[in-house]
Amino acid sequence: MRIGVMFDTEKPFDEMIGQVVSLRDAGIEKAWSSQIFAYDALTALAAISREVPDIDLGTAVVPTYPRHPVMLAGQALTVQAASGGRLTLGIGLSHQLVIENVFGKSFEKPARHMREYLSILMPLLEGEQVAFAGETLSAATFGPLQIAAPAPTVLVAALGTTMLGIAGRMASGTITWMTGPATIESHIIPTIRAAAAEAGRSEPQIGVGLPVCVTGDTVAAHAKAAELFAVYGHLPSYRAMLDREGAGGPADVAIVGTEDEVRAQLRRLADMGTTDFCGAPFGSADEIRASVGALAASVGI
What we know:
The mean pLDDT is 98. Helix 2 (41-51) links the parallel strand 2 and strand 3 (56-59). The protein has helices spanning 13-26, 41-51, 69-83, 96-101, 110-125, 161-170, 181-198, 218-228, 236-245, 259-272, 285-297; strands spanning 2-6, 30-33, 56-59, 62-63, 87-92, 131-133, 138-140, 153-156, 173-177, 205-214, 255-257, 276-281. It is built from eleven helices and twelve strands. By secondary structure, the chain is an alpha/beta fold.
């Protein structure tokens, strides 16, 4: 299982670069960036890649609705060219609340949107010309994109059965967030693997993103997680996965405990078939440092 860490995209840019340097120096394999309402993730990763070699980079995740797939393909390949091919492109639908209220777009039939999006995006990343007309998305390029870079791995943020099927058939795998280990094992992994096998594709990558805190005070850490990540307990897609897990809220799926306990929980994820872990360290400065250390010590499990 490859070990990565989500870095803080709300810091000043030089501090953000410093975070990635620290992750690399600690032995973390991949630095992941979210795309919420801070820096543009792909622009930031292109710049960071020129400053910080020897660490892979990923987005978890770039929302699809605000960017036409031709534009996203060009951005992703630009990061690939800048970084020497170190990008994993995580993409996702975002949420109805965001897409309709912030961007003023319809969230009707999101699975259709993702199928059409990947029908344009994937061939462009592979260096092909595209002529596609869907119900809501279309593209007719004059030729392949003129960017000399390898196609990045594409992971789709997929939680429900339909979206996992799309990810398995059309992309390289999935990257989840706030989804507990029992649900990963019983639902995420078998569903996406079955879809990939049915399509004749290789076994998909399974990315798992969860909060992490190495601490001697698990009660306080769980209380902190409940505060920091409360919003995810109210967004329908995450709420459905928490309910499937039998979790009251995000704090119940956070990876919390001593270093040995945290590493044991990571081992469980690796043993069930997780290929990529994206940890979001939280807590005090000392707890965050200890969490990064435990994650680095788990490289290769």
